[in-house]
Amino acid sequence: MRRSDRLSEIIEIVQDGRLHLARDIAARLEVSVRTIYRDFDTLVASGIPIEGERGVGYLLREPVFLPPMNLSLAELEALHLGMAIVAEAADTELQAASISLTRKMNKVATANGTVPKNWGFGVYPFVQARIGFEHMPKIRSAIRAKEKLKIDYLSLDDISSTRIVRPLQSAYWGKIWTVTCWCEARDDFRSFRIDRISRCRPSGIFFKDEPGRRLEDYLEKVNSQMTGRPDASTQVK
Amino acid sequence: MRRSDRLSEIIEIVQDGRLHLARDIAARLEVSVRTIYRDFDTLVASGIPIEGERGVGYLLREPVFLPPMNLSLAELEALHLGMAIVAEAADTELQAASISLTRKMNKVATANGTVPKNWGFGVYPFVQARIGFEHMPKIRSAIRAKEKLKIDYLSLDDISSTRIVRPLQSAYWGKIWTVTCWCEARDDFRSFRIDRISRCRPSGIFFKDEPGRRLEDYLEKVNSQMTGRPDASTQVK
DNA sequence: CCGCAACTGACAAATGCTGTCAGTTGATGT
DNA sequence: ACATCAACTGACAGCATTTGTCAGTTGCGG
Q1: For chain A, domain boundaries
Q2: Residue A70 is nearest to which of B49, B79, B180, comparing CB atoms?
Q3: ipTM
Q4: Sorted alphabetically, which keywords does the UniProt record give (chains A, B) (predicted)?
Q5: Of A54, A88, A104, B120, which alpha carbon lies 20 to 30 A from A215's?
């Protein structure tokens, strides 16, 4: 096995986010432990955020490592346009992420002449209100963690309520953001407009996927109704 | 200089899209020509689309090569959301690009458990009409190439006209796409709604950036007017 | 058919990588 | 305070890879 191959193997191994011991990796790759230590040196030297702790093991800090990749011009354009839109249409967390990603890409791509400095894309503010945007990072991480949320919601007819929901998906409709949930009180799917959520906090209670209450079930249900706007039937006014 | 560093140097050198001779690269990196040939072998073997032609030189086929990179979870989310929106809001060329880019990312990112298979993003059609979308690839490549376009335009009061324009920027307003141009006939900036362009063809005539007629000049002019919608004053109804 | 520059093969020399060994360091638990 | 664990470090001999030199071949364009 070539050294360079071994280095990328190590990245793949460490990428699962769990702790790894140098000796295990050494056994798996059939080299000595010393070599693994040296390999980690090399990887860290080339900027890969691996952290080793004495007595504990190794861990990859950032969750994803992108291997070398070739992009076509169209793909690069799509990427830049997408990041420009996200920077306009999403919350500050994603906004910051899209800007830093664009910067990373530019760093490698615009140094030379083939790639235009100016992409010829303009994106102008088209999210009408940014009310409720501060909830979005919380909502996204709750979706990922499958954690129930406690939300205070003001319906479109100005009736407020507090609910415990299982967040499943946050959706973008061009002007507004919604979050689709399984609502524990109503025992059904409900979609909430994020700009009508006045308060939103993690409950500390985690849920498991249950048939009939999953995102897949919601999407299937909606699909079978063949309405133009998928969540019209469950929309919380 | 380490071998691996030299390999990425070579990529950077070749990335400019111009022809390079092995002997020049060898001189620049202070190694022998033979070593450079071997390095190209290595690069090609790891899937980098470099082409060498006898008697000519070396060339990178795809315009952009993305070196290894670390993305945070937020950046990955922004990327997926952006690609989902582009797939909904742009023409088929960009749509295809966004899909293939998403696939490339998924291939490396969802293999292990850290990254969710389902991102919890839904994006629903929010471009009202896809009329005129077929012109967009042409428009984008004309912007890049600085090639004048001949367009047939139907104004909002149903007056049609044919114009020669210098395309500068295509902009997205959440519902509609526009292209901002320097209009040769009017001798001023004009923005056209893409869904009102009935015909659009490259003229074969290329233009150079001239002070007063560039995108920068347009943006500056618009900025100084402090209107909410930058191109209100030059909008072609 | 000549010049160019990409290519290829062979081999010795230089360089870098690896394993072994013998330690140190810092965190954690008893 | 002590032991344990596992990351880390330095040194050195032996081995593997990489490199340069040299002497060719191949394919393209003039």
Answers
A1: 3-60, 69-126, 133-234
A2: B49
A3: 0.72
A4: DNA-binding
A5: A88
